[in-house]
Structure formats: C-alpha cells, structure tokens
Amino acid sequence: MPSYVVTGAARGIGFEFVTQLSASGANTVFGLVRNKAVATELNALSSSRKNITVLQADITDVNALELAANKVSEATGGKLDFLINNAAKSNHPGFTLDGFPSPEAVEYDLLDNFKTNTIGVVHTTNAFLPLLKNGSVKKVISISSGISDLGLTLLGEIAAEPCYAISKAALNMVVAKYAAQYRAEGFTFLAICPGLVSTSMAPTEETTPGEMKMLAPALPKVAPGFKGPISPEESVRMQLEVVDRWTVDRSGEFVSHFGNRERWM
C-alpha cells in the first residue's frame, strides 16, 4: 500500500494531489495543512475517504513537522514512499526588484519567500527522510515554477515576481543537492513546474490573476499558441504521469509538467 505525504493540501494543487491519489483505496495519503480547522474541503474529503489523514503542520515549524512525521510513522510502521513538497507562498507578483516601496520591503519579501519556499522544503524533507529511507519507492517531489528557470526568464524578459522566482530557483538547487547525496540509496528527487494553473487561491500560492497579467507580455515568446491556464485536475494528472515514470538515474532534475525543459506552459 503506497504512502504519500502532501504539504499545502488544504486547497488548490495540493488538494488536487490528495484527491487524485486517494481515489485509489490502495494508497494511504496524509495531507499536511497549516490550519486544520479551516481546511474545510480536505476535512470533508477525509470523512468520505478513509485512506486520508489530515495533519496540521506549518512547514516553517520544525517541531510541528517532527510531530507530523511521528504520526505518519505510527500509521505506516515507520515508512513513507512519496513526499510531495507542494506548500509555498508568493506575496507580490507584480513587483520587480526595484519596485518595492523601500529596501526593507524587498529584503523582507526575499527572506519571507525563502523561508517558506526553500528552507521550509529543507525542514520538511529532513523531517520525513527517516521514513522515506524505510520506504520502498523513495521519491521526493518538490513543486517549483517555470519562472525560476534562467532561460525562460531571459527569453520572456520576466522581471516581475522576483522574490518567489529566486526562492524557487534556490529550491531547484536544494533538490539537486539531495539527489547528489542520496542517489546511491535509491532516492529519486525531482523539482517540477505544475504549469500555469487556474485556481481560486488568494495571492499566497500558485497561479493568480496578478500572475497572468504579469506573464501576458512574455507568453508569445515563451509559449506560442498558449490557450490559457490549465485546471488543477489536469496539472496534477500530468505531474503524476511524470512522477510515475521518473527514475533514480534522472534524480535531481527540474522539469515541467510535460517532463522536459522545452515547454513550460
């Protein structure tokens, strides 16, 4: 029975991961959320699907992550097959590095994004590594972003949303570092961009109307024939197809939901 931990599972892409993975009764799925009390949809889904467990843990809180890992360990006999690092944040998608109201504001936003999108993933991965080492699959998937790709940024002249992009670029290196360390133990680490996803999110995670406005001028250059954002359902389905076929010999790579670096949207 494969086991999965999905962070940022209360809504959007994270919720869709839990929805699709739990559709098979053969899977055991743990959804991590910052505030279990307000995770209405996830709580409702877990009531109807007994293979879902909702756990509360902010990925910037090491103690909370360790408690969550202990609860997963108790339920699985000390094992975990998949970790999906989905939780993330983005504060000011329309700003550029020189467009913040003050030097303090840009520094705060850089550190705030980095704390969640980069350091939070390190803390989460470290918390669950002992369980993953006992698992039979050993896959760690971290949700990144196409705008963290140097080539895409330069080709599309995408100057906006810098703090989020910088933190995700750092995340890609985090994934590579883990892959370099754990390839010999059979781990597969992967950073994957979910594409431009249409969600009803507040501007704290995933694609927002502000991001669409920001990216619009770049789309003809980087994505000719782009037809609009895809749904969370389509994004997660495509990502899981990539995850399923990814193997340890390609551990540490950063790709799109198409499984390559040529097409991001």
TrEMBL record:
<dbReference type="InterPro" id="IPR002347">
    <property type="entry name" value="SDR_fam"/>
</dbReference>
<dbReference type="GO" id="GO:0016616">
    <property type="term" value="F:oxidoreductase activity, acting on the CH-OH group of donors, NAD or NADP as acceptor"/>
</dbReference>
<protein>
    <recommendedName>
        <fullName>NAD(P)-binding protein</fullName>
    </recommendedName>
</protein>
<dbReference type="Pfam" id="PF00106">
    <property type="entry name" value="adh_short"/>
</dbReference>
<dbReference type="InterPro" id="IPR036291">
    <property type="entry name" value="NAD(P)-bd_dom_sf"/>
</dbReference>
<dbReference type="InterPro" id="IPR052184">
    <property type="entry name" value="SDR_enzymes"/>
</dbReference>
